[in-house]
Amino acid sequence: MTGEHPLLSSPSSSSSDSSTAPLVPSSSIAEKIDQLCPDDSSSSSILDGDDNVQGDLFSVKDNTTVSDCGATPAAAKQFFPVEARFLPQFPLEYPTQDRKGLVSWGTMELHSINSSNSASHDVSRASSGVQEKVNKSQRIRHKSIQFEDNLLHEDNPRLIYIDDPKKTNDKYEFTGNEIRTSKYTLITFLPKNIFIQFHRVAYLYFLAIAALNQLPPLAVFGRTVSLFPLLFVLCVTAIKDGYEDWRRHRSDRNENNRESLVLQSGQFRPKKWKNIQVGEVLKICADDTIPCDIVLLGTSDPSGIAYIQTMNLDGESNLKTRYARQETSSAVASAVAEGSIILGVIRCEQPNRNIYEFTANMDFNGHKFPLTQSNIVLRGCQLKNTSWIIGVVVYAGQETKAMLNSAASPSKRSKLEGYMNRETLWLSIFLFVMCSVVASGMGMWLIRHKNQIDTLPYYRKRFFTNWGKLNRKTYRFYGIPMEIFFSFLSSIIVFQIMIPISLYITMELVRLGQSYFMIEDRHMFDCISGSRFQCRSLNINEDLGQIRYIFSDKTGTLTENKMEFRRASIYGRNFGSCLLGVDQLQEENATGAGLVRKRWKLKSEVAVDYELMELLHKDLSGDDRIAAHEFFLTLAACNTVVPIVSTDTSSTCAKGELDVDSIDYQGESPDEQALVAAASGYGYTLFERTSGHIAIDVNGEKLRLDVLGLHEFDSVRKRMSVVIRFPNNTIKVLVKGADTSMLSILANDSERDDDDELRHLTQSHLSEYSSQGLRTLVVAARDLTIEELEQWQCMYEDASTSLTDRSLKLRQTAALIECNLKLLGATAIEDKLQDGVPEAIESLRQAGIKVWVLTGDKQETAISIGVSCKLLTADMQQIIINGTSEGECRNLLSDAMEKYGVKSSKKRNQSSKCKSNAASDYLELPDDAKTSSVPKWHAGKEEGKISAPLALIIDGNSLVYILEKDLESELFDLATSCSVVLCCRVAPLQKAGIVDLIKTRTDDMTLAIGDGANDVSMIQMADVGVGICGQEGRQAVMASDFAMGQFRFLKRLLLVHGHWNYQRIGYLILYNFYRNAVFVMMLFWYILSTAFSTTSALTDWSSVFYSVIYTSLPTIIVGVLDKNLSHRTLLQYPKLYGAGHRHEAYNLHLFWITMLDTLWQSLALFYVPLFTYKESTMDIWSMGSLWTIAVVVLVNVHLAMDIHRWVFITHIAVWGSIIITYACMVILDSIPVFPNYWTIYHLASSPTYWITILLITVVALLPRFVYKVVHHIFWPSDIQIAREAEILTGQHKHLGSKQDEGSSETR
Questions:
Q1: Which residues form the P-type ATPase C-terminal domain (predicted)?
Q2: Which of 61, 529, 641, 864 could form a disulfide with 773 if both were Cys (CB 3.0 to 4.6 A apart)?
Q3: What span, in angstroms and rounded, lies between the C-alpha atoms of 1176 and 1230?
C-alpha cells in the first residue's frame, strides 16, 4: 500500500532515497519562523463552550528530554493523549455507584455531540456546575501544586503481572477467554425455554385451561385434545429458539477454537483462544483478529505505532492508530529475541463497557507511566498495515469490552399490542359473565329438578350396576354448590378460545411477511452505499403508521457527512469566494508548477482560492503572510489524521514524468480529513506521522516537527491543541475549536486596536459562513516559554497517571496553555444535504408529522440547513431561546408563551391539552407550503394569537436549565405549539431528554433517526428508532429498530409501509377477536338451549382445528398482502397518513361495533339451522357438523367483504380454507370411533344443508353489508374517497387504453 516508501518512517529509519528531500526545513522557512511572536500570559479558565465539529481524535507521544520539575532531575518525559474519549450512549456507560443519584437530563455537563463522528460524552459528572465551582479554587497557579496519588483513591485496581498468568489470577477472580453467547445447554434448554415462554400471560391462561380439563368432573374435551393448542404453540416457538441457539453454539465453538501465538517458555506458540488467560503475552500478525483486550508492548514499527480496523466493534472502516510505549517497545522486542523474561505490572480499572476510555498505569523496568485508550487494542479488531504487534492480556472472555457491549437493544412493544391487551381484558370480562350465566342457570335448573336427579342418566346419586359398585362409584352428583362451581370451570374450558392464543403466532408471522416486503422494496435501496432496508425489530411494524413526532440528527442524517473545505478567514481577510481546481490553477499560473517540486495526489481533488495561493507563495514576511503560514501549519499539524502514502508514476505533466506520491488520509472525523486535505491543496501536505513527530511538505520543502503533547478534543473544552517543537527549538501550542470556546481564550490586549478589529472581522465572517450552512472552526496559536512548558509537563505527568478523575485533571492542565492565544483565522466546511431531503420533510409535514432537529452544530448553521431542507419556511415566526441561567430561561419561555397566546398546562387538564394540541397543531400547517399565497407574519406586529406557524430554536445551554422539572412543562407547552423545533448544541443525553419529554407527557408516537454513536440514546429512547447507514460507523444502526441508507426513504417507510402495516395489523386484531368470539357465542347459545350442561355439539378436534387450521391461513395472507391504497396514491396525498393519528383502523369504538356484529352473527349462526331443521330428526352431531362448516364459511366471507386487493394467492387462501375444512370434516367423519361418524355424507346429499349454509351467510352478514354501504355513501373517510378516486382513475386509464387499441385496429 505504501509502495517503496515506509508507511511511517521513524527518525532512525528514514529513507535515504535521493528523490526524497531530507526531513529538515529549508533555510528560508527556518529563518522566518523566528519572526513569529510569542504571546506571554498565563491566566486561563475552563469554559463550557458550545459544541464543535471535531471528531474523536487519536493521540501521539514523544520521547523528549526536558528540564527538571521542582526538585526532580532532568529526565526523559513522555507525552500522551490528554483526553480519553467517552461513550455517548446508555448501554455502554453507567455512572459509578456513588454518582448514580446525580444523573439527570438537565443537570449534566455540556458534553455536546460531535456532528460528524462519535463525540465524547461523559454522564458520570452530572453536576458540572458544582464541580466547576470547586475546581475554580483549585486552579493550578504554580508548578509546585501536584495532584494526589491516584492509587490512594482507587479501592480495587486490577493487577496484571506481565507474562505471569498464574500470579495474575492467583485468586481465580478473572474469567478465561472462552465466550458464550448461547442461552441454553442440553440440560437447561427445556426448563429454561418453557420458563421464558410462560412469561406471556396468555400461555398461563391456556395452561390452566388444559390442567382443568384433566380433572374428571371437568373433562369437557378429550384430555389429549385440550393440550394440543398450547403444545403446538410451545413446540413451534421452542424449535425456533432451539435452532437459533444451535447457531450461536456453532459460532461460539468456531470462535473459541481459533488460535493465536502466545509466549510460552520464551517462544511464541499457537494456543486456542479459549485457553488464553489474563497476563499472557500475545503476538498478533497482520490481518489477524485480536482475541482479547491487550495492552500494546511493542510493534513491528520501531516507533511503536500500529494500525487497527474496528469494523467488527463499531462498524467504522477507517484505520485507527494505537501505540506501544517507547519504554516497552524496544525492551520487549529485544527480550523476545533473546528469550529473556518480561517483567512488569499493570494497574488498570475494573472491566467496563466504555470502549472509548481506558485508564491504567504500568510499572516497567523501574519506570511508572500512564496508559490510555491509545495503548489498548480491543477484542474483535483487526491488525492492518502492521506486520505484528506484541501485547499483554488485560481483559479476557466475557470481561472484554466487546462482550460487555454485546447486550441487545431494549425491547419495545407495539402501541396496538397495548390496546389489544385492553380489549383482551374486556373479552375476559365477557368470558367471566358467560361462565357465570351458565353456572347460575345450572344451579337454578338443578334446584328445579332436584327430585328427578336419581332418574337422570347423567347424574344418578347411586349406581344400579355391578360395575359402579366394583369401582366404588356410588354417585356422580356432588351437591348443588359443587355442581355450580364445576359448571363454571367447565364453561371456561368450553369457551377458552374467547382469548385467541393463535393471535400471537398470527401477528408474528404477519410482521415477518411485512418485514420481508419492506426489505425487498427496491425504492428503499441505496445505490450509493449498496445498502438495503433493514428490519432489526419485528415487534413494532404497525407503529410506523402512527408517528406524530420525528426527532432527527442533522449531520449525516439530513446531510451527506462528506465534508468539503469551502471558505477561510485568515487575518481578517475572507477567502474562498472563487475556487479553482489544482490543475486549473497550475494552468492559469505559469509559475505555479515551478513552485511545486513534488506533487502530492490526493484521493479527492481540493478546490483552492487563487488569491490565497498567491499569498502563500510570497516571502514569509508581513503579518498576513505569517498568519496564513501558521494557519495552514495548524490545519496540517493539529489533528490525529494518519497519512497513507503510495508512490506512482504520472506522465500527464507538461515537463515529462514525475514521481507522484498518492496520499490518502485516514481519520475518525470527516472534518479533520477535509481540513488536512485542504492544507495539502494549499501546499502544506502532512505525509508522515509517528509517535514522536510529524512531517509536513511545505511547498516542496520538508518540515519536521516534534510533537511534545496533544490535548484531544472533548465536549467540555470544545477544542483540541497540540504542543509542537520547531527545528529552531521554538515551542508553540496550536489550537482549533468552536468559536464560542475559542474567542473567550484569545489574548485581550486593550492597547492594540488591530486585535479587536481582527476579532470583529473574523466574527462577521463566521456569521456569514454559518448563515450559508457551513460548519465553522476557529484557529489560534501562541508561543510557550520554557517555564510554561516545564510547568505544563509536571502537571501533565501527574494528571495522565491518575486512575481517577483523569479527564478532569487533564482539562485543568490544558487550561494552562490554552489561553492568551493569537487569533489566526477561521475555517468553513460544507456538508451538503442528501438528495430528496426537502421533499421528504415537506411530505412528512403535510402528513401531520412534526419534525424536530436535534443537532450539535451552532445555531446559525442549523437555521441555514433548516431553511435549505424546507423545515423552516418564510412564513414562520422564529422563537429563539438562548438563556445563560435558569431565571433568564424562565423569562424567555414565559414571554414567548404570553406573546403568542400559548396556554400553560398548569391551567388546564393535562390530558385534554395533549389531545387538543395534537389536533390543532397539524391544522395550522398550510395546505401547500410551496405556494406564496400564505400571508407572511411580520415580526414587528404584536398579536394576541398565533397567526402564523411558529418555529422554536433553542440551544443546549438553555436545555441544561430548562430540563429541570419545574421548567419542563413550559418548554413542553411552547414546543408542542410550534410547527418546527430546532435544538442546537445539544449533548446525546439531552437528545434523549427531549424525546422523553414528549413520550412521558403525550400518547403520541415518536421516531428518532440518526447515523452516529451520539444518536444511540435518542434512538433507544424513542418508540421507533431508525439508523442511517452513513459515514459515522454502525453504532446507530446496531441500536436501531430499522435501518436505511438515506433520509428520503423515511417518507416511503412511513407514508406507504407504515400506513399499510397499521391498517393490516389493526384489522387483523379485530378480525381475530370477531372470529373467535362468533364461535364461542354460538357454543354459548347452544349451552343455554341444553339445560346449561356445558356439552358441545362439535367434536373436540373441530374445536381445536377451528383457529389453528380452518381459519388461520386467510388471516395471515390478508395481513401481509392486502393494500387499501396503492403506494402512488399514498405518496401523492400525504394527508392520508392521518388515519393512523386518528386511530381509524383500530379503536375502542370499532371494537364495540365488532362485538355487536359478532353477537348478531352468532345468533343467526345458531338459530337459522335450528329453525330450518326444527321438525327433522337430525341428531346433535349432524347439527355440529353443519355449524362447523357454516361458521368457517361465514368468517371467510366476512373477511372477503373487507379485502381491498385481490390477488391469486388471496383467492387460494380464502376459498382454499373452506375446501380444507370440508376435507378435514370428511376425514374426521370417516373414522368409526368418532361419534360423528359418516354425518357429513348424509348432510351433503341434502339440498336443505346447502341452502341453510347460504341462508346463514346472508342473514348474518346483511346488517354489516348495509352498514358499510350507508357509511361509505353518507360518511366516507379520506381513505374511502381516495380509494374510489383511485378505482375511477384506473377505469378511465383502462377505457382509454382500450379506445386507443380500437382506434389503432380500425386504422
A1: 1037-1277
A2: 864
A3: 23
Q: 44 is written with which cell numbers?
A: 486561563
Give catalytic residue positions.
553
Predicted confidence at residue 463, as pLDDT, reads 53
pLDDT of residue 217: 63
> What tens digit of pLDDT does each residue of 135-151 get?
333 333 333 233 333 33
pLDDT at 212 over 60: yes
> 842: how many CB neighbours lie within 10 A of its CB?
20
C-alpha to C-alpha distance for 834 and 839, rounded to whole angstroms = 11
C-alpha grid cell, residue 950: 411558529
Lowest mean pLDDT among 117-131, 225-239, 679-693, 1052-1066: 117-131
692: Cβ contacts below 8 Å, ≥ 6 apart:
11, 60, 61, 62, 63, 64, 303, 326, 706, 707
> Is 991 marked within a binding site?
yes
Cross-strand partners of 1027: 1010, 1043
Shortest CA distance to 641 belongs to which of 694, 683, 684, 715? Answer: 694
Is 1025 annotated as ligand-binding?
no
Please report which confidence band the pLDDT of residue 944 belongs to, taking 50, 70 and 90 as the band edges. Answer: very low
Across the chain, mean pLDDT equals 77
Sign (positive or negative) of CA dihedral 1190, 1196, 1197, 1198? positive
Is 1014 known to sit in a ligand binding site?
yes
Taking CA atoms, 304 is separated from 62, 296, 319, 381, in Å, by 11, 9, 16, 18
What kind and span of H or E run contains 482? helix 480-494
For 124: left if phi > 0, alpha if psi spans -120 to 50, otherwise beta; the answer is alpha
- Please return the burial class of 16, using the count of CB atoms within 10 Å of its CB with bins 0-12, 13-18 and 19+: exposed
Per-residue model confidence as pLDDT tens digits over 711-754: 888 767 888 999 999 999 899 999 999 888 888 888 876 556 67
Number of C-beta neighbours around residue 59 at 10 A: 25
- Band (pLDDT 50/70/90 cuts) for residue 368 is confident
CB-CB contact of 264 with 244 (8 Å) = no
Ramachandran angles phi, psi of 272, nearest 5°: -65, 145
Within a 10 A sphere around the Cβ of 471, how many other Cβ atoms?
10
- The CA-atom distances, in angstroms, between 3 and each of 564, 661, 663, 862, 924 are 28, 9, 11, 43, 63
d(CA 567, CA 830): 9
The verdict on whether residue 736 carries a ligand-binding annotation is: yes
Whats the size of the chain, residue-wise? 1307
Say if strands 547-552 and 850-854 run parallel, antiparallel, or are unpaired: parallel
Taking a C-beta distance cutoff of 8 angstroms, is the pair 966, 912 a contact? no
Q: Which of 65-74, 169-178, 872-881, 1087-1096 has the lowest mean pLDDT?
A: 65-74
Is a pLDDT exceeding 90 seen at residue 1131? Answer: yes
Report the C-alpha gap between 92 and 404 in whole angstroms. 8
Distance between the two ends of the chain, CA-based, in angstroms?
A: 69
To the question of whether residue 122 is assigned a binding role by annotation, the answer is no
> 1245 Cβ partners below 8 Å, 6+ apart?
none
Highest mean pLDDT (candidates 23-27, 505-509, 597-601, 1052-1056)? 1052-1056
345 in Cβ contact with 279 (< 8 Å): no
Residue 941: count of CB within 10 angstroms of its CB? 9
749 is annotated as contributing to ligand binding: no
Q: Residue 809 pLDDT > 70, yes or no?
A: yes
Where does residue 285 rank: exposed (0-12), middle (13-18), buried (19+ CB within 10 A)?
middle
C-beta separation of 145 from 791 below 8 A: no
Are 1136 and 1129 spatial neighbours (Cβ–Cβ below 8 Å)? yes
Assigned C-alpha cell, 393:
492480556
